[in-house]
Amino acid sequence: MDGKTRIGFIGLGAMGEPMAARLTAAGFAVAVHDADGDRTARVAAAIGARAATTPRDAAAMGDILVTMLPSSAVVERVLEGGSGALAGLAEGALIVDMSSGEPNATRSIAERIGEKGIAMIDAPVSGGVSRARTGELAIMAGGEAAAIDRAEPVLKAMGNSVIRTGPIGSAHAMKALNNLVSAGGFLIGIEALLIGQRFGLDPALMVDVLNVSTGMNNSTQKKFKQFVLSRKFDAGFGLDLMVKDLGIALGVATATATPAPFAGLCKDIWAGAQKVLGPGQDHTAAAKFSELIAGTTLGGSPDGSKG
Ligand code: NAD
């Protein structure tokens, strides 16, 4: 616990709210802000933080500013302008961008604010809403060692592993590549369930088999029964955000001239799901797009009972 460090926290969505809650629970003095003022007030009251009406106010109340926003473009917007966070940060402050951002944008933000004596690291996370609640996120950290050292007590209140990935922007590249692997595992698993169901296999039973076999992945373990076969489609991670992450991963492939045919197809299918299903969907709803292509809806026994 570090009761002395004051933290400004911007972005109180599915992830930001439970992450900010971990910080107040750990004894940090936190000022929170979200573009949605009602949300700011509700979260501040619920977790014992101060409500800040602008990004500048949130930043001015902290030695460290944490951002947990949809994209690098939004991070840039939040920093700029008269009521932007940069206007509130003192020289020597540190920005910890925990959003899943874009490596080049992150590098250029860091360069720009570095000229004003403000440091930055990228520290995106994996583990979803459930692990955000328990403070067990996997955190990737890119940037100068001294800046990561300074952020570490704050990061450790939100995650149980902090892996240093290299210079600024490297953690954002790593995060996008993690989500590429996760997105591919989801799609191939759903395809296998659709094929199996049409063959006569029970999808829930298939998930049981995959989970004790080499086909197991995070989606088979934590998503298929819970959010797809149950038809709940409410894992808490947006389809729009997944498509954004895949765009970042493909951008890294292009920038490094790495042939990535599977990644390209994977992104096209996720983007197709986004187009057909519309905005604001949970990412697990992408299974409905695969069902649509197959002309088959996954059925069976979502609770896992064999039947
Ligand atoms: P979300 O859409 O639930 O929340 C985003 C929040 O940012 C919202 O409350 C929104 O009002 C706020 N916001 C948007 N524009 C703003 C602005 N200009 N100023 C202030 N606030 C603004 O998103 P999330 O699921 O919490 O994800 C946040 C980031 O974390 C994204 O980059 C996402 O890719 C990443 N991420 C999400 C998950 C997950 O499981 N949800 C897991 C790992 C990483």
Task: Please explain how this structure is put together.
- This protein is an alpha/beta fold and 307 residues long.
- It folds into 2 domains: 162 residues, NAD(P)-binding Rossmann-like Domain (Rossmann fold), CATH 3.40.50; 122 residues, N-(1-d-carboxylethyl)-l-norvaline Dehydrogenase, domain 2.
- 53% of the residues lie in helices and 13% in strands.
- The protein has a 6-stranded parallel sheet with strand order 3-2-1-4-5-6, sandwiched between helices. A 3-stranded mixed sheet has the order 7-8-9.
- Helix 9 crosses helix 13, helix 9 crosses helix 14 and helix 13 runs antiparallel to helix 14.
- The radius of gyration is 20 Å and the shape is globular.
- It starts with 5 loop residues before the first strand and ends in a 13-residue tail after the last helix.
- The model has no long low-confidence stretch (mean pLDDT 96).
- The site of nicotinamide-adenine-dinucleotide has 28 residues, from helix 4, strand 7, helix 7 and helix 13.
Query: What's the β-strand tally?
Result: 9
- The CATH topology of the largest domain corresponds to Rossmann fold
Strand order of the largest sheet: 3-2-1-4-5-6
Distance between the termini: 50 Å
CATH class of the largest domain: Alpha Beta
Total individual domains? 2
CATH architecture of the largest domain: 3-Layer(aba) Sandwich
Specify the number of helices: 15
Query: Can you list the ligands bound to this structure?
Result: nicotinamide-adenine-dinucleotide
Largest sheet: 6 strands, parallel
